[in-house]
Design goal:
Layout: no helix or strand
């Protein structure tokens, strides 16, 4: 049975590998521990969604609206987050190894204990972000 996909949906632990979720409104959707490996979330709107412990390896999330989303413990290895809105997102303990965060807006995001090994943060906005070393980035320039 295909789960209902949209705002406020319960997709906890669902297998959504490779699914086309491009441009969908996923506001407040529960995607806890969902497998979204290689899913296309380009321009999707998971605003305030719960993606804690989700598997997002190689996910396409260009220009996604992830403000206030919970991505704690999520695996975003090799994810494409170019131009993503991650304002106020919780990325505590997230794995962002080799993730492309070029021009992403991480204003006030929490990256405590996140793995940023080889992540591309070119031109990303990190104003007020709590970095993996628990320091707040006060660089406004």
């Amino acid at each position: 049975m295909t789960p209902k996909i949209g705002p406020n949906a319960n997709l906890r632990e669902h297998d959504l590998r490779g699914r086309n979720l491009r441009g969908l409104n996923l506001t407040n959707t529960d995607l806890t521990c969902a497998d979204l490996t290689a899913a296309d979330l380009t321009k999707a709107e998971p605003i305030g969604a719960n993606l804690s412990c989700a598997i997002l390896i190689g996910a396409k999330m260009t220009s996604s609206q992830l403000s206030a989303a919970n991505l704690s413990g999520a695996d975003l290895t090799d994810a494409n987050l170019i131009d993503a809105d991650l304002i106020g997102a919780n990325l505590t303990g997230a794995n962002l190894t080799r993730a492309n965060l070029t021009r992403a807006d991480l204003t006030d995001a929490n990256l405590t204990d996140a793995n940023l090994t080889d992540a591309d943060l070119t031109d990303a906005n990190l104003t007020g972000a709590v970095m993996p070393d628990n320091e707040t980035n006060d660089d406004t320039g």
